[in-house]
């Protein structure tokens, strides 16, 4: 089989000046693909398939050209064959990688995700002004296309969604206009108690802490704020249409230098054997809220 495929490529006669292989190499470098990865993408499965092409020892046959154009839909045929024009059709000096939408199964649901040209999922950012509409159209492909997609260091692999934070219900932990990066929770019973979650309902997108584990027959969940002036409240689990666990956040807020007296007090508390986080949670839970 390999011998038949090799015969389809034409050997370059001596003295013929062509750089098709160089352009293929440039294409792979543009998408940061190794020869092995490119062979897998083209369906060849062996690193030797493109080796002679990249060294300009042979010219690409008709089947190889078709495979390249099919695997890279934005690739210009004129550029590939002759070097004329830009490498990508409709490209500008600041060409962006191709973005597409895919339907994938998450738990018992089929959801829409965005992927880059390599099939890796992007992080979609949902800004504050769009969150009212997100509650209604969160799984519609046309709706998701309007949002910006990003690659965030440390969050490259897996499905992530970013939400801009509105309000101060989670202050001082997370502040207004911070951006949280979260992963989807497929089932409510899989949530980790004590973590912060983006809770999506038909009416709103909220950032709350869930302290108790949910069982299969629980019909209500208690939502907590880190802001001591906000009381916790219950919500029926059937009203939750999406749940995202916060894994990190991006903030432009830089806290001021800690008060020396307060820091010394914390040192004494820790020397007495108490955990700082537990003491902080105890103070928040037992504070008297002055507003809801």
Automatic annotation (TrEMBL):
Record SUPFAM superfamilies: LexA/Signal peptidase (SSF51306)
Lineage top rank: taxon: Bacteria
Organism: Hymenobacter mellowenesis
Designated name of the protein: S24 family peptidase
Pfam families: Peptidase_S24
Gene3D superfamilies assigned to the protein according to its UniProt record, in alphabetical order: Umud Fragment, subunit A
Residue ranges occupied by any Peptidase S24/S26A/S26B/S26C domain in the UniProt entry: 158-229
Keywords linked to the UniProt accession: DNA-binding, Transcription, Transcription regulation
């Amino acid at each position: 089989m390999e011998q038949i495929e090799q015969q389809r490529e034409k050997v370059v006669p001596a003295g013929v000046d062509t750089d098709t292989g160089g352009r293929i190499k440039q294409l792979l470098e543009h998408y940061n693909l190794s020869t092995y990865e490119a062979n897998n993408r083209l369906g060849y499965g062996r690193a030797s398939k493109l080796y002679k092409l990249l060294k300009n020892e042979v010219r690409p046959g008709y089947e190889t050209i078709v495979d390249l154009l099919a695997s890279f839909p934005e690739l210009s045929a004129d550029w590939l064959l002759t070097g004329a024009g830009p490498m990508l059709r409709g490209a500008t000096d600041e060409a962006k990688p191709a973005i597409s939408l895919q339907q994938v199964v998450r738990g018992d649901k089929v959801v829409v995700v965005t992927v880059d040209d390599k099939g890796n999922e992007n992080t979609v950012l949902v800004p504050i002004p769009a969150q009212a509409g997100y509650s209604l159209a969160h799984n519609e492909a046309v709706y998701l296309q309007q949002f910006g997609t990003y690659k965030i260091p440390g969050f490259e692999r897996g499905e992530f969604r970013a939400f801009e934070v509105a309000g101060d219900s989670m202050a001082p932990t997370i502040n207004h206009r911070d951006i949280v990066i979260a992963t989807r929770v497929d089932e409510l019973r899989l949530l980790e108690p004590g973590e912060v979650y983006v809770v999506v309902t038909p009416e709103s997108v909220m950032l709350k802490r869930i302290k108790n584990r949910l069982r299969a027959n629980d019909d209500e969940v208690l939502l907590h704020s880190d802001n001591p002036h906000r009381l916790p409240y219950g919500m029926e689990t059937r009203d939750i249409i999406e749940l995202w666990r916060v894994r990190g956040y991006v903030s432009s807020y830089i806290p001021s230098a800690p008060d020396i007296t307060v820091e010394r007090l914390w040192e004494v508390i820790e020397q007495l054997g108490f955990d700082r986080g537990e003491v902080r949670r105890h103070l928040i839970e037992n504070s008297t809220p002055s507003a809801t």
